[in-house]
Amino acid sequence: MSPDKYLKNYINGALVPAESGNYLDNVNPAIGQVYSHIPDSDEEDVKKAIAAAQKAYPEWSTTEPRVRFRLLMRIADIIEQNMQAFAEAESADSGKPVSMAMSVDIPRAQSNFRFFATSILHFGAESHHMAGEAINYTLRQPIGVVGCISPWNLPLYLFTWKIAPALATGNCVVGKPSELTPMTAYMLSKACIEAGLPAGVLNIVHGLGHKAGQAIVEAPEVKAISFTGGTSTGKKIAATAAPEFKKLSLELGGKNPNIIFADCDFDEMMVGTLRSSFSNNGQICLCGSRIYVERPIYDRFRDELVKRTQFLKVGDPSSSVTDLGALVSKGHMEKVQSYLSLAEVEGGTILCGGTPVEMPAPFEEGYFLRPAVVEGLPIDCRTNQEEIFGPVVTIAPFDTEEEALAMANGTQFGLSATVWTKDISRANRMAEKLQSGIVWVNCWMVRDLRTPFGGVKNSGVGREGGQEVLRFFTEPKNVCIKYG
Fold it and tell me: Edge-to-edge strand order for the sheet containing 247-251?
């Protein structure tokens, strides 16, 4: 399986161009050049996809779970068998190192299919006995046609995180991957055809958010929307979908605190903090972009973080020694750089990084940026309040547990938080009081697919993962049978 130069939509089991015949450029961010083209889809393409999903729904929704299990497992097998090709395509689209795609993105994508394929075999109904009178039982039934819209930072990883449970529970899907990173979603289309997934069960429409994405959200036939992306886009989706009483799962932005106490295991913490700061160029919604350090170890931490950050290798995504590849686009790199300029205006000091990397051919026009550490900013400044989504962290000291909590909770976001301490009582106190959907203690990005995933405040509504997402993609129906 290999990428193609001209991608196609996947509608009703076939690969087809956009109705308009128009294409959008797809840029490889490591070289800054167009390397493929994607359909510039619009409402007409979405209508075709929805019609195909509606046609497929009656049979797919009543298909035995064990049949769905076998088909989803077959898709997972095909992804695994083509791991290298998928990883190279993910790297070419997003600029991330191939090694990261091989170790994180693509393994997780096939795991998503395996996990939810298996989960549906164990997704049971509840019953409630009214002694001597009646019995109630709950039917969990699929919703119908659902929309799954995913972002560019972890393309196949997050696309399948939505699609797999939606299909497992008997829904038919109209999905839209990001226009910046469409290639692995296109390759997933081929995998579904090879696996024998019935026509119309999954439809993938490429294109721009305000055209193809908005058409999915607006369509009255689409009964639920699962979206991962920016908070501003999430607000627009909610404004459109909520008045139509669609089910919504919105996983939005993060401005996550990393809280480091003096009693932590310093070496383990440093390894974890470097990962949580700069993995995928900081382009993960769970990255710890605000670092708060207890004052007794602050100077030692600052010096060590700067030293280790400067050692990170920024370069060729195909090299096994590369730590950070290119940012996803020229526009995004300019956005990150604008925040670094803002940080200085707001009184911060850039301790390292923040400058473009001069690269040899063929990467001289790529979007490479040195990771940055910023010190001396107040908690309420824009740099500490707004999601940058790049290789930039801010650091500041604290003196008390209460101060650390106030700093950590002092934004409109609440996706994740990390706490480093050997004091289990303190860890539990912090976890209880942190305003975050996820709290990691002495680790970062340790994920069990059975657990709920999502944020509070402006980080979204709803939960993905485990039983939570199976409940989201089904409607409960109570059946009461009175004794005769």
Answer: 14-16, 9-11, 202-204, 172-176, 145-149, 222-228, 247-251, 460-461
The confidence band for 1, taking pLDDT boundaries of 50, 70 and 90, is confident
Q: Which of 76-80, 119-123, 165-169, 427-431 has the lowest mean pLDDT?
A: 119-123
- Residue 354 makes CB contacts below 8 A (sequence gap 6+) with 337, 340, 369, 370, 372, 392
Task: Supply the Cα-derived Rg of the chain in whole angstroms.
Answer: 23
pLDDT digits (tens, 9 = 90+) for 410-464: 999 999 999 999 999 999 999 999 999 999 999 999 999 999 999 999 999 999 9
Q: What is the pTM of this model?
A: 0.95
- How far apart are the C-alpha atoms of 124 and 134, rounded to whole Å? 20
- Number of neighbours of residue 122 by Cβ within 10 angstroms: 9
Asked if residues 194 and 225 have their Cβ atoms less than 8 Å apart, the reply is: no
- What does the DSSP 8-state code read for residue 314? B
> What domains sit in the chain, N to C, each tagged with a CATH number?
9-252+459-480 (3.40.605.10), 257-448 (3.40.309.10)
Annotated active-site positions, please?
251, 285
If DSSP codes are grouped into helix, strand and coil, which group holds residue 241? helix
Q: What is the DSSP string of 57-119?
A: HHHHHTS-HHHHHHHHHHHHHHHHHTHHHHHHHHHHHH---HHHIIIIIHHHHHHHHHHHHHH
CB atoms within 10 A of CB 110: 24
Cα angle value 313/303/272 (rounded, 5°):
60
Which residues pair with residue 246 across a beta bridge?
Answer: none
Q: How far apart are CA 448 and CA 277, in angstroms?
A: 21
Give the sheet arrangement for strand 474-482, strand by strand. Answer: 127-130, 134-142, 474-482
Mean pLDDT, range 234-262, rounded to an integer: 96
Q: What percentage of the chain reaches a pLDDT higher than 90?
A: 98
Rounded Cα–Cα distance for residues 166 and 393 (Å): 35
